[in-house]
UniProtKB/TrEMBL annotation:
<feature type="transmembrane region" description="Helical">
    <location>
        <begin position="232"/>
        <end position="249"/>
    </location>
</feature>
<dbReference type="InterPro" id="IPR052017">
    <property type="entry name" value="TSUP"/>
</dbReference>
<comment type="similarity">
    <text>Belongs to the 4-toluene sulfonate uptake permease (TSUP) (TC 2.A.102) family.</text>
</comment>
<keyword id="KW-0813">Transport</keyword>
<protein>
    <recommendedName>
        <fullName>Probable membrane transporter protein</fullName>
    </recommendedName>
</protein>
<dbReference type="Pfam" id="PF01925">
    <property type="entry name" value="TauE"/>
</dbReference>
<keyword id="KW-0812">Transmembrane</keyword>
<keyword id="KW-1003">Cell membrane</keyword>
<feature type="transmembrane region" description="Helical">
    <location>
        <begin position="99"/>
        <end position="118"/>
    </location>
</feature>
<dbReference type="InterPro" id="IPR002781">
    <property type="entry name" value="TM_pro_TauE-like"/>
</dbReference>
<keyword id="KW-0472">Membrane</keyword>
<feature type="transmembrane region" description="Helical">
    <location>
        <begin position="74"/>
        <end position="93"/>
    </location>
</feature>
<feature type="transmembrane region" description="Helical">
    <location>
        <begin position="49"/>
        <end position="67"/>
    </location>
</feature>
<dbReference type="GO" id="GO:0005886">
    <property type="term" value="C:plasma membrane"/>
</dbReference>
<keyword id="KW-1133">Transmembrane helix</keyword>
<feature type="transmembrane region" description="Helical">
    <location>
        <begin position="194"/>
        <end position="220"/>
    </location>
</feature>
Amino acid sequence: MIADLSPIVWAALAIGALVVGLSKTAVPGGATLSVALFAAVLPAKESTGALLILLIVGDMFALLSYRRHADWKVIVRMAPAVVLGLVAGWAFLALADDAWVRRVIGVLLLLVVAVTLWRRWLQARSEAEPGARSGAVAAATYGALGGFTTMVANAAGPVMSMYFLAAKFPVKAFLGTSAWFFAIVNIAKLPFSVGLGIITPGSLLLDLVLVPAVIVGALVGRRVASRMDQRVFDRLVIALTIAGAVYLLV
């Protein structure tokens, strides 16, 4: 597979790997762009397997930077729903074709954005404290969607970003909770992905070549995050989520 890749394809993959690193340490949800780039130049299922390994590498850098800032109550509350979402995603991926997978995820992401913006509007009116409305129903809903979308397309970043934004997490709490959540979930996905045959020796060799780009992106992202304004951060996450959803639909 590697010998057949053109320079343009390599450039797209390198940019995607760089964005993986950035998304893990500065711009949650930005990895949707990586999903789009990998799916555009590789077969859909192979792209999912190749990207998963790079995401795990990025997770390790995110943990090094933000491991002390996680809200473990949120992670534990979401765990049962995430497991159900993973199993549902595995079953869907085994049965559905690529076109259905893309459309379903795109619709779900747009719905998540709409619901989250509506919830934030309600919070602003009631002057709720951070996390006040992140109850069991919200945790179960976002957790199931997150588990499903991460299994079928590594696209849970926007889903979880919307949940953490709705909870009004500060930047570091947002990044720390995201770091632990995705590190655990992505490692849990490995047996499913191997069983589906979407992680192969060829994809692992491709990942080995692209890992340096992930590292560079993670280091750059760490510097960017320390200077990022909360409003800019929130708007960037929402914009990337909408862009990713539209890409998956078209």
